[in-house]
Write a structure and sequence with these properties.
Rossmann fold; seven-stranded antiparallel sheet; 10 helices; hydrolase; Asparaginase/glutaminase_AS1; EC 3.5.1.1; L-asparaginase_N_sf; asparaginase
């Protein structure tokens, strides 16, 4: 049946009909079947489709992780039979479902297109017919002269958006969805114009559904005047495993000690705290600047430019895999399926805490994926410098980044060394390296972080963070 598209109806406005077909003012109810949905639109009968309807159909406000699993199972069972899939869905939680499916449907090489409408298909001025027909065209790809788009997407009005980048932005407007931090994959007018550089590459490995979800997470949004003790009380006696913390601006939060102590308490319970911005657009870059280092010190991790929908479903997915806390933290900060623009790789060592020396060297393995990405910046953070050998003299310190293989940094114009004088009251040092050290990463498998000073010192820890970008 590779000449057909499977339409999966979960519920929502698009498939609502009048309870009394002879009374246009009668209450709406979910349609009983495909024929009842399409009877006013015979054009839909011309399309090569099959239809499956969940029982019962639900308002999308009642969407749940269990239904996400059911959708993923159904697609997995029928994956080899159809050219693509269209999921009819209520608009309120469509972005959550699209995000969750993007993590569960592995090695996807077919379109999975979610669509719905602001007005039922049965109504004369509905947006539903265009949304549905265009979704069928995109899911059917070559059957209708459309380029293959092998990912989970949302189509609405005139834009095809990556599912895990999408948000509902309007409750009534026909332009109901947006993708704040990633451009549309296709623009639809008289033609369906697919921007090929924006779609995920096709996968060579076999498709499978990884149906793992643990929904013991919450989303918390900061506001001026929030009492930190209220936050603490939420976590004192429950099974919460993860928190999406919506902070101000580019990841800013209160810096008073009471608030930081509460975050430290939450993290000490093994609860993962992910920092995302409250803003519609923008990034969180934890640890890039010294101001945000206090949050990283108490255990908060960066959510980059994840939408709230993608952040919470990604965390649910990773928690469901029963990975270690450290592994989940690592994966939450690295792009898995196009859900975030910036990946953050963190390396931490405390091996030097009992050492008193003027020379330190930290070696780390370079992740293979990093070689495919564009490096934005890198940060070395030295925490809690103490036991200075000569307290009467200023501390002169230098940090350099080198590879296992010799390379002429002068010839390649690489900025790989930073110097600083630290007064006695300065306990931490934050060094930012620019994108030029990518030349070292590309030619090596091991990086060496070297710290040299003009006197013996002790340091609690060294953290090295790399911020990279892979637009796709």
């Amino acid at each position: 049946m590779l000449d057909k598209v499977m339409i999966i109806n979960t519920g929502g406005t698009i498939g609502m009909v009048h309870s009394d077909k002879n009374d246009p003012n009668s209450p709406l109810r979910p349609a009983n079947d495909w024929n009842e949905i399409t009877k006013e639109h015979p054009i839909l009968e011309k399309y090569s489709t099959n239809y499956y309807q969940f029982t019962p159909l639900i308002d999308s406000s009642d969407m749940s992780p269990e239904i996400w699993k059911d959708i993923a199972r159904f697609i997995s069972k029928n994956y080899d039979k159809y050219r693509g899939f269209v999921i009819l869905h209520g608009t309120d939680t469509m972005a959550f479902t699209a995000s969750a499916l993007s993590f569960m449907l592995k090695n996807l090489n077919k379109p999975v297109i979610l669509t719905g409408s602001q007005v039922p298909l049965q109504f004369p001025r509905s947006d539903a017919l265009q949304n549905l027909i265009t979704a069928i065209h995109i899911a059917g790809n070559e059957l209708y002269g459309v380029k293959l788009i092998p990912e989970v997407c949302i189509f609405f009005r005139d834009s095809l958006l990556r599912g895990n980048r999408s948000r509902k932005i309007d409750a009534t407007n026909y332009f109901g969805f947006s993708s704040p931090n990633y451009p549309a994959i296709a623009e639809v007018g008289a033609d369906i114009r697919v921007i090929k550089d924006r779609i995920l590459p096709t996968k060579k490995d076999k498709f499978y559904a990884d149906i793992t979800i643990d929904s013991e997470v919450i989303i918390l949004e900061l506001f001026p005047g929030l009492n930190p003790s209220y936050l603490k009380s939420i976590f004192e006696a429950n099974s919460i495993k993860g928190v999406i913390l919506k902070t101000f601006g580019n990841g800013n939060a209160p810096t008073n000690q009471e608030f930081l102590d509460v975050l430290k308490y939450i993290a000490s319970k093994g609860i993962i705290i992910v920092d995302i911005t409250q803003c519609t657009r923008g990034f969180v870059k934890m640890g890039l600047y010294e101001a945000s280092a206090k949050l990283t010190d108490v255990g908060v991790i960066s959510g980059a430019d994840l939408t709230p929908e993608a952040a919470v479903t990604k965390l649910m997915y990773l928690l469901g895999k029963r990975l270690s806390t450290d592994k989940i933290k690592k994966l939450m900060q690295i792009d898995m399926c196009g859900e975030q623009t910036i990946s953050q790789y963190n390396f931490l060592t405390t091996d030097f805490k009992d050492l008193h020396s003027a020379n330190f060297e930290y070696n780390l393995d370079i992740p293979p994926t990093l070689k495919k990405e564009d490096l934005i910046e890198a940060v070395v953070r030295i925490k809690n410098i103490r036991n200075r050998e000569k307290r009467e003299e200023p501390l002169y310190i230098s940090i350099s980044i080198e590879g296992e293989n010799s390379i002429s940094t002068e010839q390649l114009k690489i900025n790989n060394i930073i110097h600083a004088n630290l007064p006695n009251e300065k306990k931490n040092f934050h060094a930012i390296f620019n994108h030029t050290i990518k030349s070292i990463i590309d030619k090596n498998n091991i990086l060496k972080i070297k710290i040299n000073s003009n006197m013996k010192i002790s340091i609690e820890s060294v953290k090295f963070s790399i911020f990279s970008e892979y637009l796709r």
